[in-house]
């Protein structure tokens, strides 16, 4: 009969007081970390002395790389390390084969294409690199890195015509602005001004932004084609029309004319902009126009700018408060001084359309004076009795 097993006795703790030196979890972690940082002696260097040892070493390394790839084919860094190692072993064909296998896994990976082409260029395989770039830009035409490196390679090889063909293929995809500017700089490096101008013509149609038109005009100006620069500005004004009016274009146009000492032309540009731009977008135009007149204008020109600016201010006041009849009177006085009958009548009609919202006698009195001034203008200035009677009848009704 088996004897029952005895349970071990629980040791009695004689001293239950806390230890004088407490060890924290932080200290334990710090000590473990310090042990990790201890300098481990590097493994001894392996010297390969004969072809058999080299073949054995290469076999083991290739097996390790293949095992890593087999575990996870989608980790691209494993493929790249494998190919770079093969290149270090002077096995370019093997490296090329590895990159092709990697492209089968992920043919839209930009890094693989770049590393592959760098391999070919390092080993002076120009035709291989060229074929790779062609494949890359066909599969990923929106990857600008490929186009930049492709054109750079052709230019460094001295194949200017080939680089130009690559640029033309690239521009067919209507890439971002920087790509066009790079093409223009390429042509300018070889003094191909006519070709650069043709590129600018296409560029402003693909990216029709005001800064690009200004850049085009300044290009013509730098080359000494003053009439060409003026035509570019005129084309830009015509292109945008009155629907999209940007003050930057008109300021650049006017300053161009100012630089050519064509001050009358500059004034025409400023006045056209002030007449056609929305009133809330003319602050910079007024500022530039005033500076121009102070530098090159006479007293009449400066007064015209001041009057125009005051007119703008009164327009803003009546826009914000249509029942501010004092501002209407000030505006009408300036408009009458200009002498444009159609604008004067249109301003009077706008003013009298704002009927006082309350029964305040003073406000009504100022409003009636607008009608009276309108009638007096037709009677005394235009000598149109019939229109004067019509205005009085409208006022009384």
UniProtKB/TrEMBL annotation:
Keywords: mRNA processing, mRNA splicing, Nucleus, Repeat, Spliceosome. Transmembrane segments: none annotated. The keyword Nucleus applies. It is found in: Nucleus. Residues 64-209 form the Pre-mRNA-splicing factor Syf1-like N-terminal HAT-repeats domain. GO terms for biological process: spliceosomal complex assembly. The keyword Repeat applies. It comes from the Eukaryota. Pfam families: HAT_Syf1_CNRKL1_N (PF23233). GO terms for cellular component: post-mRNA release spliceosomal complex; precatalytic spliceosome; Prp19 complex; U2-type catalytic step 2 spliceosome. InterPro entries: HAT, HAT_Syf1-like_N, Syf1-like, TPR-like_helical_dom_sf. Belongs to the crooked-neck family. This is Pre-mRNA-splicing factor Syf1-like N-terminal HAT-repeats domain-containing protein. It comes from Lygus hesperus (Western plant bug).
């Amino acid at each position: 009969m088996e004897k029952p097993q005895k349970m071990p006795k629980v040791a009695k703790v004689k001293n239950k007081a806390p230890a004088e030196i407490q060890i924290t979890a932080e200290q334990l972690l710090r000590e473990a970390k310090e042990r990790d940082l201890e300098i481990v002696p590097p493994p001894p260097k392996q010297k390969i002395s004969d072809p058999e040892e080299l073949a054995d070493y290469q076999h083991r390394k290739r097996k390790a790389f293949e095992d890593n790839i087999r575990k996870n084919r989608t980790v691209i860094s494993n493929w790249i390390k494998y190919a770079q190692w093969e290149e270090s072993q002077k096995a370019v064909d093997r490296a090329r084969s590895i990159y092709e296998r990697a492209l089968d896994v992920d043919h839209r990976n930009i890094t693989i294409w770049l590393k592959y082409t760098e391999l070919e260029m390092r080993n002076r395989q120009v035709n291989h690199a060229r074929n790779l770039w062609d494949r890359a830009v066909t599969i990923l035409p929106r990857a600008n890195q490929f186009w930049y490196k492709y054109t750079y390679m052709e230019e460094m090889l001295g194949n200017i015509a080939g680089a130009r063909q690559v640029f033309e293929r690239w521009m067919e995809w209507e890439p971002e602005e920087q790509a066009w500017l790079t093409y223009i700089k390429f042509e300018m490096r070889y003094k191909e001004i006519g070709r650069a101008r043709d590129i600018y013509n296409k560029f402003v149609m693909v990216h029709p932004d005001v800064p690009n038109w200004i850049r085009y005009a300044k290009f013509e100006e730098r080359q000494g084609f003053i009439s060409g620069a003026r035509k570019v500005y005129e084309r830009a004004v015509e292109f945008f029309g009155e629907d999209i009016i940007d003050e930057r274009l008109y300021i650049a146009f006017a300053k161009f004319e100012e630089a050519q000492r064509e001050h009358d032309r500059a004034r025409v540009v400023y006045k056209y902009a002030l007449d056609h731009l929305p009133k809330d977008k003319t602050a910079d135009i007024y500022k530039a126009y005033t500076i121009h007149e102070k530098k090159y204008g006479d007293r009449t020109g400066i007064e015209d700018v001041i009057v125009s600016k005051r007119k703008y201010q009164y327009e803003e006041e009546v826009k914000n408060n249509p029942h501010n009849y004092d501002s209407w009177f000030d505006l009408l006085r300036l408009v009458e001084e200009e002498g444009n009958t159609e604008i004067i009548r249109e301003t009077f009609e706008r003013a009298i359309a704002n009927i006082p919202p309350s029964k305040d006698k003073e406000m009504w009195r100022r409003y009636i004076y607008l009608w009276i001034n309108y009638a007096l203008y037709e009677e005394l200035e235009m000598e149109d009795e019939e229109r004067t009677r019509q205005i009085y009848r409208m006022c009384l009704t």
